[in-house]
Design brief:
Helix content: 40-55%
Radius of gyration: 17 Å
Structural class: alpha+beta
Number of domains: 2
Number of strands: 4
Oligomer: single chain
Number of helices: 5
Shape: globular
Distance between the termini: 30 Å
Largest sheet: 2 strands, antiparallel
């Protein structure tokens, strides 16, 4: 998926079937997208699979990578054992992400 800054909608960039989530698979995908005219995006958001992170570094040299919010939240909440605390922290994360400014988020 790609976010179109002109229409403010997401565009499907490709639908591919690969045997795994390896660096080789992601490198092939990103290379194909570049050959079709994709310029280096400013940011790619995904899970923390090493394959995609390494492929981005190899193919899209100027592109930054960021862990998606869902995986970030799961990582944080998996370290909180108290269920009530998990709920409070989860709600705080959602409020932070939906804040209109940095000052409101902290």
């Amino acid at each position: 998926m790609g976010f179109n800054t002109e229409t403010h909608k997401q565009d499907v960039l490709s639908i591919e079937i690969f045997p795994d989530e390896s660096q080789e698979s992601y490198t092939a995908l990103l290379t194909k997208l570049k050959q079709r005219g994709l310029e280096s995006p400013k940011l790619i958001v995904s899970d923390a699979a090493a394959g995609i992170i390494n492929a981005i570094k190899k193919v899209l040299l100027e592109t930054k990578w960021q862990l998606c919010q869902a995986h970030f939240a799961r990582n944080v909440l998996s370290r909180v054992k108290d269920k009530d605390a998990q709920k409070r922290i989860g709600k705080a994360l959602v409020l932070m992400w939906h804040s209109s400014s940095y000052e409101r988020a902290v």
